[in-house]
Design brief:
Chain A is of the alpha+beta class. Chain A has four helices and three strands; from the N terminus they run αβααββα. In chain A, helix 1 packs across helix 2 and helix 1 (7-16) crosses helix 4 (80-99). The chains are: A alpha+beta, B mainly alpha.
Chain lengths: 104, 224
């Protein structure tokens, strides 16, 4: 079955719940969709960078983490316009699915 | 190499003097260097094992299913760092309780253990592997996991030299975090295969994402 949303939508929705870094966002999406939407390295990072370039996200580096070999995590958070976009998207999706009657 | 244990139940620290040979020293130094490089941290394990007072503890869960499983070399290294010696095979209730001996019990325990080792040594010198204050079993596995994490880190670090800093730190860092999670999960099936698969897939996506990164930066277009 095709995933119901793309990486872009899934990441925006995941970030509504608070900032996070790549790996954490992958897990967050997987948990919240009960495994229906699976993000991976191939689509998460390019999409996050795109969203940042578009001004919907802002990112910053955390402190170096020992379990990452001393590399810092890069955290992402929604900007004001990103928040608006995410909420509009959530409304649109809820409206769309709310209109549909389950098949009998 | 079979250690020459004291005949009179001397404290084990004295006993292990007989082990201080160049090969063990080099092995220990290699292991410490490997642990320092390794991104894995088992609680106080790594720090403890390399601590200057030599009284560190490797902590992990002891279960019935996973009793002591200590490699000869690992044991000697531990002993070399100054840990109390102990028999690897613990069977009686009394011996089981000694696993969890407190600091106050150590001096007395050292003597009793040394005697026990000496008694065992008479029966079979190959049984004289000794370790104590290693409250986790399976040091061999622990060492293998640490070595695996170092290997993964080295490979990804080398590969990352050719990548932009942002891609390198973000994606390689997340990949290493995943690898460490795999290696620190004792229930993970076949961690070795999983780690090598993760390294391979990470390298592939790093290459792809780096091209996308440059294309998107130059053109200002979406990569997805």
């Amino acid at each position: 079955m095709e995933p119901p949303v793309n990486a872009r939508a899934a990441l925006l929705q995941a970030l509504i719940r608070g900032e996070g870094y790549g790996l954490e966002l992958i897990k967050r999406v997987q948990e919240r969709t009960k495994g229906k939407v699976k993000l991976h390295q191939g689509n998460v990072y390019p999409t996050l960078r795109d969203l940042e370039r578009e001004g919907l996200l802002r990112s910053y580096e955390g402190p170096p983490a020992p379990d990452r070999g001393g590399r810092p995590r890069r955290f992402y958070k929604l900007t004001a316009s990103g928040q608006r976009a995410a909420l509009e998207q959530a409304d649109a999706v809820a409206g769309l699915f709310g209109l549909l009657e389950p098949a009998r | 190499m079979t250690p020459s244990w004291s005949k009179d139940g001397l404290p084990v620290d004295t006993v292990i003097d007989g082990l201080r040979e160049d090969s063990i020293r080099r092995s220990y130094e290699r292991r410490v260097a490997s642990m320092k490089r390794s991104p894995i941290r088992f609680g106080a394990a790594s720090d403890g094992m390399v601590s200057s007072d030599g009284m560190g503890t490797v902590r992990s869960e002891i279960t019935e299913r996973r009793p002591w499983a200590v490699s000869d070399s690992a044991v000697r290294v531990i002993v070399e760092v100054g840990h109390t010696a102990y028999k690897p095979r613990l069977q009686t209730d009394e011996e089981l309780s000694e696993r969890f001996a407190t600091e106050q019990d150590l001096a007395d325990l050292q003597r009793r253990v040394a005697k026990g080792i000496e008694a065992d040594a008479a029966a079979s010198s190959s049984e004289v592997h000794a370790v104590m204050r290693v409250e986790g079993p399976d040091l061999a596995s622990l060492n293998e996991r640490i070595a695996l994490s170092s290997t993964a880190d080295n490979w990804l670090r080398t590969f990352g030299l050719f990548l932009p800093k942002r891609v390198r730190e973000e994606e390689v860092g997340d990949a290493m975090e995943t690898i460490v999670q795999i290696l620190t999960d004792p229930t993970y099936p076949n961690p070795r295969r999983a780690v090598f698969w993760k390294i391979a897939s990470t390298m592939f996506w790093l290459a792809v994402n780096t091209v996308r990164h440059f294309c998107a930066a130059v053109r200002g277009t979406k990569a997805e």
